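Residues determine shape. We examine one folded chain.
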Amino acid sequence: MNLAGQLADRDRWAAADWCPMEHALQLIGTRSAMVLLREAFFGERRFDDLARRAGVTEQIAAKRLRQLVDAGLLEKRPYQRPGQRTRYEYVLTERGRALFPVLVSLIEFGRLLQGEAGAMELVHDGCGAAVAPHVRCTAGHDVSLADTTVRIAKRGSRMV
């Protein structure tokens, strides 16, 4: 990556206070948060199932799910089985579904680490082809690491 403008002098700034990646990692940067989100993407909704399938304790699941709800990635919806008390399920919001490319990238990176042992793959329902992460600019061009510049966003520009 290339650093432009006031970012070019690395000794004059630190990213900790403003870096969008650090803000995201504060929320989803734990194993427990990501595996709970994975399970939500896989269709789990109920607390007990999420915690069990994610392999986390109920205490950790409760804490992480509360954080994910507070951040708007999951929505907590009430449901009630006949004769039982009201319980809640956790559903991905639009903001939560925006993490899909991140999930795809992490799965693909994990497959690289596993080698042939990584039997799971993501495929497009429409044609059966493998789903692959790509980096593109908003004009539709594929972008490599070397072709990327980091700069301070101009006021009024939308950062996605």
